[in-house]
Amino acid sequence: MAKSRRHRRKEKRFVYYMQSKLMFVFVVIMLVAAVLIGRLTYINRKNGERYEKRVLSQQSYTSSVVPYRRGSIVDRNGTVLASSDLVYNLILDAKLILEKEETLKNEKYEDGTSKQYMIRDAVSEHFEIERSEIDKLLADKPESQYIVLRKHLDFDVVNTFEEEIMAKNKSIVGVWFEEEYIRNYPYGDLAAHVIGFTASGNVGTGGVEQYYNDTLNGTNGREYGYYDSELNLNRIVKEAVNGNTIRLTIDANIQHVVQKHLSVFLEEIGAKNVAVLVMDPNNGDVLAMAVNDSYDLNNPRDLTGIYTQEEIDAMDTDTLFTEWNKIWNNFCISQVYEPGSTWKPMTVAAALEEDLVTTTELFKCDGYEYIGGYRISCNNRSGHGMINLTQSLMKSCNDALMEIGKREGGDLLYAYQKLFGLGSKTGIDLPGEEKGLLKTNGMSVTDLATNSFGQNFNVTMVQMAAAFCSLVNGGYYYEPRVVCEILDENGATVEEKEPVLVRETVSKATSEFIKEAMYMTVAEGTAKAAGVEGYLVGGKTGTAQKQPREDKRYLVSFLGCVPTDDPQAVVYVVVDEAQNVVTQASSTIATSFASRIMEDILPFLGIYPDGDIEYNRGLLGDGTLPDTDEGEEGGEDAPEETTEPLVDEEGNPIVYDPSQDESFPDAIPDGMDSQQSTGTGDADGTQEGGE
């Protein structure tokens, strides 16, 4: 009994304070562990890659780039216009191959032949490469771990080698495949000047490829590998981040139709420059943009379509770059010119907005005005007589426009030029846009007269198209654009680019008047050849005499919309120095060309005939030319070129000979400098003296 009590006295109890001490130690250990885990996590995030490299540096390792895939470019309907396709480069590790061959020199196949060169044999046989080429590379670079033997191999070829040869024979080492993406343009030259192309290193040149280069590009990943004691390659991969996809406002179908007609025009007529721009006036979307010097995006430096190979071989580097830049240049945004009479609707709109004219007012045209010491002629030098405001546009009367310009004055006309976006870049999302040239230091009376009907200032096509869009859409000026959405590699929207409304240019009432006047200009005026049967087409012609004036070189154009009661498309055609014609000075060359384009693209736009409206698109049934001026002799845009057919039965061009017609050009007289005026004149144009 006593012994039992002594034994109980020696027993120790796990009392409270002991529990507290143990809990304290446990908490401390957990805190230290948490700190260590946190520190390791921090180090891994911040310096993990550096430490991985340091560890791998202690071993035999390889390091290669995991390339990102550049984003695709698709049209508004999702048709792929540019993509990056995955290919493989065959890489040899000479050092590893030679080391492996050393270990195999004493091994033999069942037939007694040596296994030493099995790696070389496998590569040579599968990829159809001469053994001598492989032997030379390994002999010349025995220490190299990166020899590019073949580039741009297809997946099937690479996969077969990896599955059937490397997987079955572990002795095949030192052979690996590097991924690479190559840019592919499945439709060749389609929308070439909008898309642009990529040079080496995923660097965009021209078009969307250049303007959105950073958006299309991603970030390269990295693959690190080291060889274990058995020469097996173990890899650590940091994945690449692919670029985003660009969705264009361009419609590939419309673009194709435009380029097809442009190609036919160049074959049958020809010109120094021809360009076509199609826009949606209600949001600034460019639906098609084409110029004559197109090129294959898959081979953008190919000049064989222009020069013989002997001529190309004789070119030095500077000449080659000059020629390349010619075909890469986008006339629609980078070339400036005088617009001619396509500017007249803007002059009239400005006068209406400022209550300087009324829609019913009459103007007297006697065929010319003396202004600033010059006799400036109307397109009809015998005069149009008394005409109203609508007829001043229908007949493209310079005399009436000079009177309207005189009422506006130089400052007001200049202000409206700026309001319509001239003299500054439109902001279109393409590189290389020019801003044009305006008379900024005050207009003389002669400058004012010629500016009123579209000469003595320079514009770009995109400026004129955007300005005209605002005239016919109710007065809203939208920033032109070629990109409407940015998508990630999975097709999810990254950024939806909303239309940018920049400002209002004219009132709805003015817009309605201009649309009606444009319709009458096509239905009964100088632009009859632009009509398309069944459609309400409206538009204005232009004939601009280029400098120097005495050279008699002309740029003709048509700027119109369809349907005029609710415009859904604005079409702008410019023909610079038409070639296979008697004279360059007839805008019918451009209007008939525009008519053929519109006839084919309107169904793609969801625009269908409004009724049985018959327009004349060229020669009448008896071989005579349509009257473009209601019986008046002449007319700014008297037809010169036929429409369908463009050639006679013998294949010769059917052209209009205006040798008896003094209506050309709608410009200042020969010898007058477009940038200067001499002498002084009264505001009413009654300058003493003469030409």
Distance between the termini: 148 Å
Second CATH tier, the architecture of the domain at 64-102 and 123-247: Alpha-Beta Complex
- Fraction of helical residues: 25-40%
The number of helical segments is 20
What gyration radius follows from the Cα positions, in whole Å?
Answer: 37 Å
The description of the largest β-sheet is: 7 strands, mixed
Mean pLDDT: 83
Q: Give the low-pLDDT segments.
A: 612-691
- CATH class division of the domain at 64-102 and 123-247: Alpha Beta
Helix vs. strand class? alpha+beta
**Could you give the count of β-strands?**
23
Based on CA inertia axes, which overall geometry fits?
elongated
Strand content: 15-25%
CATH homologous superfamily placement of the domain at 64-102 and 123-247? Penicillin-binding protein 2a (Domain 2)
CATH fold-level name of the domain at 64-102 and 123-247:
Penicillin-binding protein 2a (Domain 2)
